[in-house]
Write a structure and sequence with these properties.
The structure is a single chain. By secondary structure, the chain is an all-alpha fold. About 75% of the residues lie in helices and about 0% in strands. The protein is globular. The protein has a domain of about 230 residues. A two-stranded antiparallel sheet has the order 1-2.
């Protein structure tokens, strides 16, 4: 039996068991912990979404929150005319994908910092549009969603399961992308974009496809998030801090991997919550110090430790891995 349940099969069974435990969790626990887990799943999903272009291709986007905002506002507006929530979320995702495709064609011809600045500018423009189109979005007064006629625990469980579901879907998608021609093309772009062009890879098309996929799923998450909050305004829907936090989570875990952004989201969410509860006035400073230490000692992300599969992760081997990473910073 042990020989049968080895390798990938063993991992798959453990993963399915973990998903089943998470699925029943909101019916065992209620209140604060369920809401915290829902937020954690949202960050995990967005980190994974950002990883499609930012991790696999190395194009650092600062504007992911722009598509989250499109999803939140788009879902609310479409639901206001009487359509089902899931239909509204899907339509808002398609709108965001169209915007990503149109915007992506010019800005994805830019390189490095110029691209990052352009994505931030796009999210800022969307923020200003939502702030000024008062007749459509409510402007600075915000937009209210229809409140579900159910108990608070049932509502929390409902959105918890929705966020968990989207994390699973996006993670499976990233796993497929990483093994597909799209994934290999994006990785080639990250290694050397000019060489990829010479080899016949249409790098602009690959980047636009990845950007469009990211925009679609970011809007899906935004639609669920908006319904969960029941109220959004420009400042919350297009909060640039969300984009920065998502990038940090992906980098802490390990960009360009499937498990890395998930691990980073879990660790940073837990650390941030503990620091917030115990060190209210200095939690941002403590969080910053922790992130700096991780970047210095593990620049490839925490997943770099687990990638040394040939070694037993003893204190000695862990010290060697950390020593190799920190030695790169010596002059």
């Amino acid at each position: 039996m042990k020989a049968f349940l080895t390798g990938g099969k063993q991992k798959s069974i453990l993963l399915i068991m973990a998903i089943c435990v998470l699925a029943v969790f909101p019916y065992v626990k209620t209140g604060y912990i369920v809401r915290f887990m829902t937020t954690l799943f949202m960050y995990a999903a967005l980190s994974q979404i950002w990883n499609i272009l930012g991790g696999f291709a190395g194009y650092i986007s600062l504007g992911l929150v722009g598509f989250v905002g499109i999803g939140a506002y788009g879902t609310g507006i479409i639901m206001a005319v009487g359509l089902n929530m899931y239909v509204a979320i899907l339509l808002s995702g398609l709108i965001a994908a169209l915007v990503a495709m149109i915007v992506g064609m010019p800005i994805l011809r830019l390189r490095a910092g110029y691209y990052s600045i352009a994505t931030y500018a796009v999210s800022f423009i969307l923020w200003q549009l939502s702030n000024n189109l008062i007749w459509l979005t409510g402007g600075g007064m915000g937009f209210r969603f229809k409140i579900a006629n159910a108990g608070i625990d049932r509502i929390n469980a409902y959105y918890y399961l929705n966020m968990l579901g989207i994390v699973i879907i996006i993670s499976i998608l990233c796993m497929i992308i990483s093994k597909s021609s799209l994934g290999y093309g994006l990785m080639a772009i990250k290694e050397d974009e000019d060489a990829a062009n010479v080899l016949g890879i249409n790098t602009t098309v690959f980047k636009v496809v990845a950007f469009t996929i990211s925009g679609f799923f970011a809007a899906i998450v935004g639609g669920i998030y908006g319904n969960w909050l029941t109220f959004i305004d420009p400042a919350s829907a297009f909060d640039s801090n969300l984009s920065v936090m998502v990038i940090i989570m992906a980098m802490v875990g390990a960009v360009g991997t499937v498990a890395g952004p998930l691990l980073g989201a879990v660790l940073i969410s837990i650390i941030s919550e503990v620091l917030w509860n115990n060190f209210l006035f200095v939690h941002q400073m403590f969080l910053g110090v922790i992130l700096i230490l991780i970047v210095i000692f593990l620049p490839k992300g925490i997943m770099d430790i687990f990638m040394h599969r040939e070694e037993k992760l003893s204190p000695r081997s862990l010290a060697r891995i950390l020593g190799e990473n920190i030695s790169k910073f010596r002059v």
